[in-house]
Amino acid sequence: MLLDALTTTLGDANPYTIVLSAGGSILAIILGKYIYDVKRGHSTWRNLKSPPSLPLLGSSIPLVKNLDRFFDWAYEFDQHVGEGVTWTFRLPGLPRYFIINSVEGVEHVLKSSFLDFEKGETFHEWFEPLLGDGIFNSDGKAWQLQRKAAAHIFTTGNFRTFFMSVFEENFSHFNRILSQTADSGTVIDLHHLLHRSTLDSFVKIAFAGDLKCLETYAAGNESPVPFMTAFDQMQEILAQRSLSPAWSLVEHFTGAKRTLKENVKYIDDFAYGLIRKYKEEQEGTGLVGKGSMLARFMAMTGDDGKPLYNDRELRDVLLNMVLAGRDTTAQVYVICQPPFRI
User: Fold this and answer.
1) How many angstroms separate the first and last alpha carbons of the chain?
2) Taking a C-beta distance cutoff of 8 angstroms, is the pair 317, 132 a contact?
3) d(CA 118, CA 107)
4) 158-194, pLDDT tens digit by residue?
5) Which residues pair with 54 in a beta bridge?
6) pTM for this prediction
7) How many CA within 13 A on the CB side of residue 160?
8) Which of 1, 134, 174, 209 is least enclosed by beta carbons within 10 angstroms?
9) Which residue in 147, 28, 148, 44 sits closest to 88, CA to CA?
10) Would the CA dihedral through 41, 44, 45, 47 be positive or negative?
């Protein structure tokens, strides 16, 4: 009844009236949230330093000016406030951000008081298309269960067997490419090459899949493989959500929504295809639990003897592991800006 009345009213309304009403509603929500945040959190962050800020707008002006160099901007403000000093900034319609750059602060958040710092529903919504309910996008019991399961897998024994053999094979390919590059005296994008290398390794460790990122590069094709393209584009689109209160509209009008949908389908088809393939290959062989993380997670059972993870949960858990291993490992190796002459 109410819905019918609302539909009729909107149908008869002037389009400009609808736009103005929607704009007014959004402004009212932002204003209300601003007042609520000020009253609720003023005592906890009022003494923290912040970039130039305005009522309602927060620090959006300096952020927009430095959007294409966000991390440089954040680092420069780090230097401005001093080493080890926590600072904060706010954007309209988004949760308040806190930047922690001290060992003690990071340890407090990630270790000693970890359960007090939930990611929350907003964070989950931002990154759900890629991370699902994986360890980087979950809280509480769900996080604890995955953390416990991962601890049983990432052991010294497993690293010395399957994991290490994957890394050795991968870096053999990597070294051949570096040798060929050195002999020819050409310039390579080391950052790009390292990300190919680590993506190859962690997709094989997680899914027992072979992307052949380095193999195609060595053959003269420097274009990213389809999985790499989809994976990187998804990360870029989803990261932008954390800087825009109107990310849904932005994605719709820029075409990012369609790109994201296509990439989600590709990643899902890839993950579910490897899960299905592994199940078919291992059916009746008694080999479940050997080798890849997929095999090990599939081998886990609950108290009732049933599998602990369904296909969707396996997809989420393993993609989170690929994200964790691929990007962090590659970044550790990068000690200079590409391109780098060998």
Assistant:
1) 72
2) no
3) 15
4) 777 778 888 888 888 888 888 888 888 888 888 888 8
5) 58
6) 0.77
7) 3
8) 1
9) 44
10) positive
